[in-house]
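I am writing to request your help with a piece of structural work I have in hand. A protein sequence and the structure tokens that stand for its backbone fold form the material at issue. Please examine both parts with care and let me know of anything in them that strikes you as inconsistent. The record follows directly beneath this note.
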Amino acid sequence: MARHSDRSRRLTRPLVRRNGSLEPATWNEALNATAGAFQRAKDRDATRSFGMFSCSKTTNELNFAAQKFVRTVVGSNNIDSCNRT
């Protein structure tokens, strides 16, 4: 039974959802789509439309930076972590 290596299945470029399907995109297109999604969340009242869930396996510093971004840039306090489970 032939098995694909993990390397052959890795993404090599970003994908952006267009008309319901994922299509290859440039990095600029992907970053613009991401920034646009953050802006739409802010415009729809981020306190209700956006949340972040962090991982206990990452560093405290990365979790701090992520929660700081969500609180100050996106404007949401909806932050939780699997540390409590």
The two ends are 39 Å apart (CA to CA). The chain has a mean pLDDT of 85. DSSP finds three helices and four strands in the chain.
